[in-house]
Amino acid sequence: KLPKVVIIGRPNVGKSTLFNRLVGKRLALVDDQPGVTRDRRMGEAGLRGLEFEAVDTAGWENEDDASLPGRMRAQTQVSLKDADAALFVYDSRAGLTPLDEEIAQWLREQQVPVVLIANKAEGNAGQSGILEGYALGLGDPVPISAEHGEGVADIYNALSPHI
Ligand code: GDP
Ligand code: MG
């Protein structure tokens, strides 16, 4: 059985784009509008020979239930239950938001190893947000551009000790 790695983050940070990169197929729906990933999607991912089951989530995207416990109940908590590691993605262009910090705090309380991913880090606009990630207490952010495929292979170094 492959190790399970769950991709977590607030809407629109690029979780599904990263999922598609890792799985190498367009299994996840990518959209400019938050909340388009209605279901959890899973696929076999390969990263420099490291094989795992990647899970794309949308657990913070239910706007009908705005309370944090409600959002946690939605998919993400279920996904994380038997996960071997989590990739916590934030938007390096937008910088950290209160929701990123809420999710980070929740993740720090879980028993799962977390790899912090600063996505959309390409170009000058993505640079300052990389530094902000250090404040989350989840280790060094791995800067990537899921859209352009940059830095994705660097996730290997942070992830491979855990799975
Ligand atoms: P999700 O809601 O977290 O699953 O985010 P999506 O994968 O659906 O992406 C949301 C938006 O961000 C889409 O318009 C993507 O094209 C865009 N996006 C994803 N990755 C990157 C990236 O590395 N750089 C930039 N500039 N945009 C990205
Ligand atoms: Mg998505």
TrEMBL record:
Superkingdom of origin organism: Bacteria
Keyword annotations of the record: GTP-binding, Nucleotide-binding, Repeat, Ribosome biogenesis
UniProt keyword GTP-binding present: yes
Molecular function GO terms recorded: GTP binding
Residue ranges annotated for the EngA-type G domain, each copy included: 3-163
One of the GO BP terms on file: ribosome biogenesis
List of residues binding GTP 1: 9-16, 56-60, 119-122
Family: Belongs to the TRAFAC class TrmE-Era-EngA-EngB-Septin-like GTPase superfamily. EngA (Der) GTPase family.
Role of this protein: GTPase that plays an essential role in the late steps of ribosome biogenesis.
Assembly information from the UniProt record: Associates with the 50S ribosomal subunit.
Protein name per its UniProtKB record: GTPase Der
Protein encoded by which gene: der
Residues of the full protein shown: 5 to 167 of 464
